[in-house]
Recover the amino acids of this structure.
């Protein structure tokens, strides 16, 4: 496999080839995922939960994301590496520029930020400065205290229409990829049709242009609860390499996710 770039991901959407993504936090797992042919790796602020054992992502720092981005970069040959910008690290364009610089210098190919309309100016400035941006709509975990819990978003028609508008606005501002988390399948499909950039779903049905899961959920080692949209591939294969390879195959064939793993 050759290096995955933003233009390659766009072509995959246009060709109807599904994008397989996973979170990664260190060089060894990154190397394993890359060797199995994963397209995208995300240094997720989910590290606050799966690495640090906290009950939200809010305590993760830009320095921590940069450190793990360096680790993942060292183990990666072909996959596109995205670094999550943590809580409060992109509260205004100037802050976003400064913090994204640290993540790009650590080896990220792109940064991801959570939100809609309020980010248009930030996205414009980041992309103009050479920082590719992935948007993130729906259940944006950094807003867990605003939502009152990790709840499915976009269930009523007003909120759904607003999310479609925000997706179009993010694209117009310059975003080149869009994560849709925990939204009803019909809404994820409508957004995927409304934008020309690829959408990557998590708990958003099988109609998005790709899928992402937290690696600990795929490998069945998340402590506490396991989200209903995730799938334990170690349970099926009993082997790390085969678990990741099967996940990628099932994303590409459309077998993952099945109906029991999405929201209506
Ligand atoms: N291990 C792990 N996996 C994840 O997918 C994940 C993390 N951690 N940490 C960061 C965020 C938080 N995420 C979450 C956390 C909880 C739910 C959850 O409990 N969802 C309920 C739906 C509730 C409703 O119906 O509104 C569910 O049943 O899955 C969903 C996403 C996804 N991300
Ligand atoms: C679940 C993905 C999309 C994420 O943002 C993370 O791992 O932090
Ligand atoms: Mg995140």
């Amino acid at each position: 496999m050759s290096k995955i770039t933003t233009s390659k991901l766009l072509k995959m959407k246009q060709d109807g080839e599904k994008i397989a993504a996973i979170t990664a936090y260190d060089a060894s797992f990154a190397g394993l995922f890359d060797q199995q042919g994963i397209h995208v790796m995300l240094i997720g602020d989910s590290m606050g939960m799966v690495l640090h054992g906290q009950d939200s992502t809010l305590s993760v720092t830009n320095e921590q994301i940069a450190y793990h981005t360096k680790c993942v970069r060292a183990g990666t040959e072909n996959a596109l590496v995205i670094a999550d910008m943590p809580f409060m690290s992109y509260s205004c364009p100037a802050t976003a520029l400064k913090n994204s610089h640290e993540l790009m210098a650590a080896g990220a190919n792109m940064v991801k930020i959570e939100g809609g309309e309020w980010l248009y100016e930030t996205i414009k400035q980041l992309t103009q400065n050479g920082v590719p941006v992935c948007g993130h709509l729906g259940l944006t975990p950094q807003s867990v205290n605003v939502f009152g819990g990790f709840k499915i978003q976009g269930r009523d028609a007003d909120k759904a229409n607003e999310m479609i508008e925000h997706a179009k606005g993010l694209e117009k501002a310059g975003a080149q990829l869009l994560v849709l988390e925990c939204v009803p399948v019909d809404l994820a499909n409508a957004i995927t049709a409304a934008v020309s950039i690829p959408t990557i779903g998590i708990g958003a049905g099988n109609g998005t242009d790709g899928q992402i899961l937290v690696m600990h959920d795929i490998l069945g080692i998340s402590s506490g609860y396991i989200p209903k949209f995730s799938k334990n591939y170690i349970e099926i294969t009993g082997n790390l390499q085969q678990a990741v390879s099967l996940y990628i195959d099932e994303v590409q064939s459309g077998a993952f996710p099945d109906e029991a793993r999405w929201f209506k």
Q: What stands out?
A: Residues 6-261 form a domain with the TIM Barrel fold (CATH 3.20.20.60). Residues 44-46, 57, 84, 141 surround magnesium ion (ligand 3) (CB under 6 Å).
